[in-house]
Design a protein that fits this description.
With about 240 residues, this protein is α/β, with parallel strands linked by helices. It has one domain (about 5-240): 2-Layer Sandwich (BirA Bifunctional Protein, domain 2), CATH 3.30.930. About 30% of the residues lie in helices and about 30% in strands. It contains 5 helices and 12 strands. The chain starts with a strand and ends with a strand.
Length: about 240
C-alpha cells in the first residue's frame, strides 16, 4: 500500500482562535472534497475517488486556557478578572477533553487527517498519537506511557502520588477528518497549571521535558523528532509545506 502524504506546516507563534479557524478551514475543505468525491462515486461507481489532503500543523500559542465540549467550568480556579490581569485568554472549544493550558515553548500539534485513508478507529488514532510522543520522549531518555482510562502521555502513571502528565490530548472528528490534537510541554511555564484542574483530573501533577531533564530543550529539535516519529507510527511521509 502506498504511504499517505502529510503536509507539515509550522505556524510559529499564533493566537489560539486564529489557529482554530485555520484548522476549521482545512477540515471543511476536506469535508467538501470528500462530499464531492462521494457524489462522483455515485455517478461513476468509482469507490477510489478521494481528494482529501492530510496536514500536520505545529504551533505555539500565547497563554490561553481552553475548555473541551464536555469540560466543566468548575475546573477553572481563576476568575475572569484575574485572567485578564495576567493576559490569559480563554476559549470554549469543540474538541474532546476538559480544561487545559497552552503557552510559549509548548509544542501543540494539530493533525488534520482523513482517517479513511488510514483506518476508521478513533481509539486507535488516539493511542497512535500518544505513541508518537512516547517515542519522542524516549529519545531523551524519558520513560513515559499511558494512564488507564485517561488520554495523553504520562510519566510514572502507575505510581500513586507520582503520576504526572507531560502531554495533553483532545480531538474532534467530522466525517473521519480530524482536528485539534496534542500539547507537549517542553520548556513550558508550569505555574499556569496551578490555576486549573488540568484535564479535570484531581490530585495529579503536570510536568515538562525541561523539568524532567533539569535543562532547557530545543523546541525545534523536539519538533523534528515528533515529525520523524509521526512518520513511523502512522506509516506516512511528512513533507514540508509552504
Amino acid at each position: 500500500m502506498k504511504k499517505q502524504q502529510v503536509i507539515l506546516k509550522d505556524l510559529g507563534i499564533m493566537g489560539y482562535k486564529q489557529a482554530w479557524d485555520f484548522q476549521e478551514t482545512l477540515l471543511q475543505e476536506n469535508v467538501k472534497a470528500k462530499a464531492a468525491a462521494f457524489s462522483g462515486q455515485l455517478a461513476v461507481g468509482n469507490q477510489q475517488l478521494q481528494e482529501t489532503t492530510n496536514h500536520l500543523l505545529f504551533v505555539e500559542h500565547p497563554t490561553v486556557y481552553t475548555l473541551g465540549k464536555s469540560g466543566h467550568e468548575e475546573n477553572i480556579l481563576i476568575s475572569e478578572e484575574e485572567m485578564n490581569t495576567r493576559a490569559i485568554e480563554f476559549y470554549r472549544t469543540n474538541r474532546g477533553g476538559d480544561i487545559t493550558f497552552h503557552g510559549p515553548e509548548q509544542i501543540v500539534g494539530y493533525p488534520i487527517l482523513d482517517l479513511e485513508k488510514f483506518y476508521t478507529d478513533i481509539g486507535r488514532y488516539m493511542r497512535e498519537l500518544e505513541e508518537v510522543i512516547i517515542l519522542t520522549l524516549a529519545e531523551y531518555g524519558v520513560e513515559s506511557g499511558r494512564s488507564t482510562g485517561e488520554t495523553g502521555v504520562w510519566i510514572d502513571a502507575g505510581i500513586h502520588h507520582k503520576e504526572r502528565k507531560i502531554c495533553a490530548m483532545g480531538v474532534r472528528c467530522s466525517r473521519w477528518i480530524t482536528m485539534h490534537g496534542f500539547a507537549l510541554n517542553v520548556n513550558t511555564d508550569l505555574s499556569y497549571f496551578d490555576f486549573i484542574i488540568p484535564c479535570g483530573i484531581q490530585n495529579k501533577k503536570v510536568t515538562s521535558l525541561k523539568k524532567e531533564l533539569g535543562r532547557k530543550i530545543s523546541v525545534e529539535e523536539v519538533k523534528e523528532k515528533i515529525k520523524n516519529n509521526f512518520e513511523k507510527v502512522f506509516n506516512c511521509v511528512v513533507v514540508n509545506g509552504e
